């Protein structure tokens, strides 16, 4: 039974757990401290949450005020966020990777008076811009030794350590207990819970206003569709909580169910942490799953001989077994015996590295290459793909556990409608809901538009931009291109990404780029060709493989020239380009390319925090080199 009622607010989720699901002595959070994993009970977490609320009320914060969180994942995020949520203060979460200019813009646009930070790096970032943020009056570091960063600085904002807030708030709890309860009961479902600023591949960040209704109803719909999670699960959290995907799919789902949240130490230690924590569910982005796939393939085949032969045989057997089951057929005794042997010889060794308890992983934040999804399916690890945007709270479709259609993002969630609209005529080809699901449905391609309880309240202080994306009938226009395939939603590309060549031919770059990314030699690819006669690309090679193949040192990648001119390396890349081009139509094939020395990055301003390419930025930075591709081809 779904634990969420339709009128439950975000702070109501946690209260429901301790009142109806778990005793408050049950473990809620798990984090790594002093070289060991430590468990935090619901009671301990609630004590900190109450202290935060009491302190903030005592200094005058009130319903509707905004407070910013610039935090790496961990228990402090929960304490501060829940402390805000139950008194009606709006959470403004900022990506830790954003440049100072965007961080400054968000603080000024939101009018946040308070910001909490939990690393020296993030504190230094805020100290550089604090005096440019007129509304900011309070900076809260969560770590010891912060004074060495603030001494000798003249700041208009005061600095208050989080330890003091927890200490003083604990002393104020009794005095403010009734005020906290009254504030919590006074929260309306239509009230804004959070402002999440879209990173966007173009333009200024926009603050997406998500209400308590948006967030809790989205979780409710997810749990109605994915019945395989419950209060006994352990989620491993590593994606940033500043992103709505992790906030919903891990944090809010666990708040609703009473499942445990374990916080990874870092992305670099994720593999180690998986083995130690032994999670049952992980939310991941496609790039991580691609890396796991690439590493498993390399480990299984690089030594050659009998080991590689067994690995390839096991994958082939897994594929046959998976396809039989997906067709609703029972694998025969010979195939079942072979699969069990493959499981023992190969698959279990891969699963052990994830902790050995995974029920499934959830992939979101971008398109998962079909071959990667199939690989995990072949070895018996279920990947549920989902789709949504910040403006849709975010999930609007997700794979059903028992019905996998690779290359799609699953079935429409309950309470939501998804339509496919023709780009030119604006005619709606189809409107699909959870109830109308038809496993044989296939439709034409068009823009994906969405309607339902998930749609944001609007963009903060931007009514015209809000009107531009939400039409008079309540449809939110995503800018994504897609269609329905076997009843499931399939994403093709972004409308803004679409390349129109000099002959008027439309090219969606993502499927073309994904074709070339099948090459182990290619790490990243950026397609070019708008208003040009043919396509070209900027290609980032797989550095590890490049080092091994050409015996290169790290210094090679730190040279000043942004592009690699070595003919042998270019030819090495071109071998795979030519081979994979055969899978594409002639107008989709790359005619020429340049090999980029360093990967596209967030720090260089080339990628958004969700690793989407900023097309206009990249084209501007490398304009001269791009023009050379069309002069020499």
From TrEMBL:
Keywords: ATP-binding, Nucleotide-binding. Residues 28-460 form the AMP-dependent synthetase/ligase domain. CDD domains: VL_LC_FACS_like. Coiled coil: none annotated. It comes from the Bacteria. InterPro entries: AMP-binding_CS, AMP-dep_synth/lig_dom, ANL_N_sf. Pfam families: AMP-binding, AMP-binding_C_3. This is AMP-dependent synthetase/ligase. It comes from Olivibacter oleidegradans.
């Amino acid at each position: 039974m779904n634990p969420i009622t339709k009128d439950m607010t975000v702070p109501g989720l946690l209260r429901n757990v301790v009142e109806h699901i778990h005793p408050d002595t049950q473990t809620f959070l798990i984090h790594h401290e002093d070289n060991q994993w430590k468990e935090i009970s619901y009671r301990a977490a609630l004590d900190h949450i109450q202290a935060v609320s009491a302190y903030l009320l005592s200094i005058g914060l009130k319903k509707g005020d905004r407070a910013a969180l610039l935090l790496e994942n961990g228990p402090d995020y929960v304490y501060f966020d829940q402390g805000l949520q139950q008194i009606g203060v709006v959470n403004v979460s900022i990506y830790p990777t954003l440049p100072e200019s965007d961080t400054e813009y968000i603080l000024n646009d939101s009018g946040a008076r308070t910001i909490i930070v939990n690393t020296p790096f993030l504190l230094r970032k805020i100290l550089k811009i604090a005096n440019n943020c007129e509304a900011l009056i309070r900076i809260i570091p969560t770590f010891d030794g912060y004074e060495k960063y603030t001494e000798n600085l003249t700041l208009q904002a005061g600095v208050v350590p989080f330890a003091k807030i927890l200490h003083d708030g604990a002393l104020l709890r009794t005095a403010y207990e009734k005020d906290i309860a009254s504030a919590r009961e006074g929260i309306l479902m239509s009230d804004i819970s959070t402002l999440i600023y879209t990173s966007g591949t173009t333009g200024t960040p926009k603050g997406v206003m998500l209400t308590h209704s948006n967030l809790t109803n989205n979780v409710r719909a997810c749990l109605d569709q994915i019945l395989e999670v419950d209060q006994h699960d352990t989620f491993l959290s590593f994606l940033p909580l500043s992103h709505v995907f992790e906030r919903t799919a891990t944090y809010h789902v666990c708040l609703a169910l009473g499942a445990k949240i374990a916080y990874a130490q870092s992305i670099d230690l994720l593999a180690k942490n998986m083995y130690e924590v032994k999670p049952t569910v992980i939310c991941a982005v496609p790039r991580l799953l691609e890396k796991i796939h690439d590493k498993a393939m390399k480990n299984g085949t690089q030594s050659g001989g009998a080991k590689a032969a067994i690995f390839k045989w096991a994958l082939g057997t897994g594929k046959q077994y998976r396809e039989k089951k997906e067709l609703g057929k029972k694998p025969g005794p010979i195939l079942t015996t072979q699969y069990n042997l493959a499981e023992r010889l190969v698959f279990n060794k891969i699963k052990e590295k994830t902790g050995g308890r995974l029920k499934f992983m959830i992939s979101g934040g971008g398109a998962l290459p079909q071959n990667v999804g199939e690989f995990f399916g072949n070895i018996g690890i279920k990947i549920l793909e989902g789709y949504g945007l910040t403006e849709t709270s975010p999930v609007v479709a997700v794979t059903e556990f028992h019905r996998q259609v690779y290359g799609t993002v699953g079935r429409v969630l309950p309470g939501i409608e998804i339509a496919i609209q023709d780009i030119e005529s604006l005619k709606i080809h189809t409107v699909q809901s959870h109830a109308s699901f038809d496993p044989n449905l296939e439709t034409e391609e068009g823009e994906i538009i969405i309607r339902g309880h998930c749609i944001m309240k609007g963009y903060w202080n931007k009514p015209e931009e809000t009107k531009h994306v939400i039409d008079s009938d309540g449809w939110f226009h995503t800018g994504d291109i897609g269609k329905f395939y076997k009843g499931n939603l399939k994403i093709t590309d972004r409308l803004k990404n679409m390349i129109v060549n000099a002959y008027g031919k439309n090219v969606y770059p993502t499927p073309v780029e994904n074709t070339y990314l099948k090459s182990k030699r290619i790490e990243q690819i950026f397609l070019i060709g708008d208003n040009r006669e043919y396509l070209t690309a900027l290609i980032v090679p797989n550095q590890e493989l490049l080092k091994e193949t050409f015996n290169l040192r790290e210094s090679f990648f730190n040279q000043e020239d942004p592009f690699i001119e070595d003919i042998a390396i270019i030819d090495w890349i071109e071998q795979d380009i030519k081979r994979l081009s055969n899978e594409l139509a002639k107008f989709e094939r790359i005619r020429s390319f340049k090999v980029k020395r360093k990967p596209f990055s967030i720090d260089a301003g080339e990628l958004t925090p969700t690793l989407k390419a900023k097309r206009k930025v990249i084209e501007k930075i490398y304009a001269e080199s791009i023009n050379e591709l069309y002069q020499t081809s």
